[in-house]
Amino acid sequence: MPTLMTISLAANILILVPIVVLMAMKSWVIDDAWGPFTAARGILFSIYLAILVASIVLVIIPIPAFIAALLLVQVIYKITTPFTVGRLQNPIIISNLVVAALHSVTLVSIFRLYGDQFMPIR
């Protein structure tokens, strides 16, 4: 697997393992960062868990099209977050934008290496 794909998936795993574990434990650290538990935070926990599981599976079974799809969805949600939240001054939003930059570079690399293999379904 090319290096940038490995780095992006590893970043997902390294960032999400502690977050998912702390969310599962209902840690006060998560309350401080994301506010008290709500249904919306439970949904966010599920999304983070799905990204974590997908990242682990894709390290084991690297399929470039699947990696590109995962990273593309992450880039979109991370870039739109400052607009949906209404502010940029939040450490989670700032770190999301840094990860989006990494994943964007990885996506460019994937499409340069494998783009001719991606075809729309007809």
Can you walk through the features of this model?
The chain is mainly alpha-helical. It has one domain (3-116). It has five helices and no strands. The chain has helices at residues 3-24, 28-34, 39-60, 64-85, 91-114. α1 packs antiparallel against α3 (39-60). The longest helix has 24 residues, at 91-114. It is globular and about 45 Å long. The protein starts with a helix and ends in an 8-residue tail after the last helix. The mean pLDDT is 94.
Give descriptors for this structure.
about 120 residues, mainly alpha, globular
Q: In a nutshell, what does this entry contain?
A:
With about 120 residues, the protein is mainly alpha-helical.
Q: Secondary-structure blueprint of this entry?
A:
Layout lengths: L2 H22 L3 H7 L4 H22 L3 H22 L5 H24 L8
Mean pLDDT: 94
Radius of gyration in whole Å, from Cα? 15 Å
What is the share of helical residues?
over 70%
Give the number of helices.
Answer: 5
Strand content bin: under 5%
SS class:
mainly alpha
Runs in which pLDDT lies below 50 for 5 or more consecutive residues are: none
Number of domains: 1
How is the quaternary structure best described? single chain
Would you report the number of β strands?
A: 0
Shape: globular
Q: Report, as a whole number of angstroms, the end-to-end distance.
A: 28 Å
* Biggest sheet details: none
Question: H/E element string?
Answer: HHHHH
